[in-house]
């Protein structure tokens, strides 16, 4: 095996086949048992599988980092495990115990450690999946379930510094509705966003901002990221009402902002409030924070600063979070999870 499997400087956020992956299976009425590490490769599945026919599936995303302390760490993986458990309950799948989830993630990182980029060159992206793999013809829970984890090295989201993005508010499409599955990381939440996203990108925007399906007024998510805006000393973010994903990065930034003495309000964020704010950004595992340069709604366009320069609080929060992830600053909140044996 090559000691340097990829050119770290050319890494992007895309799939690279690694060495090993983790698979565990269980019947719907049986407890989960630890799975096995297998060579990375294709899987076989019934054409009648619940996940293929009825979308009974979830996924998660987290990263393993090489840090300034010379360790390999994960960031709050227990929160990913708990979010997948909540999603499993919503989609009528057997929840994976937190201990099995964490062990599977650790094993995948350990057995693919040569694919972890050096600090500053990127991270090892970890993708856990849970799906109804058993055959079922009627609309009902599948009889068998598969929990898988694979990993791939990814480059830093922003090469050469944070770049502001331009967003388009969609007044035509909605991501989720009250009572639906918008609050869990269900696979069915993502394909419907591909067409609006592609349309927005064809017009020169980076992504779509979705409004709520009931009032067509309140911001919910930016594509697959959570939204924040900062106005007159207060940081606003859409409240968790079951239609948006409870992002782990979102929660981390709320805690860090409050620790800095910034007032954070979780509420309904109207597009008028967002477009009159001093700063705006979105967040998620991939980019951590993406500063927003402008938001367009119909004929109206709001530009933040000069449209190219991230806001002061945006930069401060980005540095605070990434410095914890990279063990540059002390992890006083206990978020860093060292991977043993590396």
Structure description:
With 342 residues, this protein is α+β, with helices and mostly antiparallel strands. The chain folds into two domains: 8-154, Aminotransferase class 4, branched-chain amino acid transferase, N-terminal domain (D-amino Acid Aminotransferase, Chain A, domain 1, 2-Layer Sandwich); 165-325, D-amino Acid Aminotransferase, subunit A, domain 2 (D-amino Acid Aminotransferase, Chain A, domain 2, Alpha-Beta Barrel). It has seven helices and 17 strands. The longest helix is centred in the first third of the chain and has 14 residues, at 77-90.
Q: Calculate the mean pLDDT score and round it.
A: 96
Which CATH-level-2 architecture of the largest domain? Alpha-Beta Barrel
Count of helices? 7
Biggest β-sheet: count, sense, barrel? 8 strands, antiparallel
The tally of domains stands at 2
Radius of gyration: 20 Å
Low-pLDDT residue spans: none
Look at the helices and sheets and give the structural class. Answer: alpha+beta
Helix content: 10-25%
């Amino acid at each position: 095996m090559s000691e340097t499997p990829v050119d770290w400087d050319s890494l992007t956020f895309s799939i690279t086949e690694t060495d090993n992956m983790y698979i565990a299976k269980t019947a719907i009425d049986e407890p989960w048992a630890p799975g096995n590490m297998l060579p990375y490769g294709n899987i076989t599945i019934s054409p009648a599988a619940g996940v293929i026919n009825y979308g009974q599936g979830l996924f998660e995303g987290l990263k393993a980092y090489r840090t300034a302390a010379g360790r390999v760490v994960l960031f709050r993986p227990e929160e990913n495990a708990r979010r997948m458990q909540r999603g499993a309950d919503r989609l009528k799948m057997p929840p994976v115990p937190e201990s099995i989830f964490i062990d599977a993630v650790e094993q995948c990182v350990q057995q693919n450690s040569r694919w972890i980029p050096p600090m500053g060159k990127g991270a090892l992206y970890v993708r856990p999946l849970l799906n109804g793999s058993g055959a079922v013809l009627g609309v009902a829970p599948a009889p068998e379930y598969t929990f898988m984890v694979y990993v791939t090295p990814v480059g830093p989201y922003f090469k050469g510094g944070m770049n502001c993005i331009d967003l388009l508010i969609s007044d035509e499409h909605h991501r989720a509705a009250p009572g639906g599955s918008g609050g869990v990381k269900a696979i069915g939440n993502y394909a419907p966003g591909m067409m609006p996203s592609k349309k927005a990108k064809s017009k020169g925007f980076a992504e779509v901002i979705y409004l709520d399906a009931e009032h067509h007024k309140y911001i919910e998510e930016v594509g697959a990221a959570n939204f924040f805006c900062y106005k007159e000393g207060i940081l606003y973010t859409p409240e968790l009402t079951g239609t948006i994903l409870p992002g782990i990065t979102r929660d981390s930034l709320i805690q860090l902002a409050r620790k800095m003495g910034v007032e954070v309000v979780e509420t309904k964020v109207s597009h008028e409030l967002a477009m009159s704010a001093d700063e705006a950004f979105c967040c998620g595992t991939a980019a951590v924070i993406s500063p927003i340069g402008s938001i367009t709604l119909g004929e109206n366009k709001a530009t933040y600063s000069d449209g190219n320069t991230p806001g002061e609080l945006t930069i401060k929060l980005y540095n605070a979070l990434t410095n914890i992830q990279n063990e540059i600053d002390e992890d006083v909140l206990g978020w860093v999870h060292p991977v043993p044996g590396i």
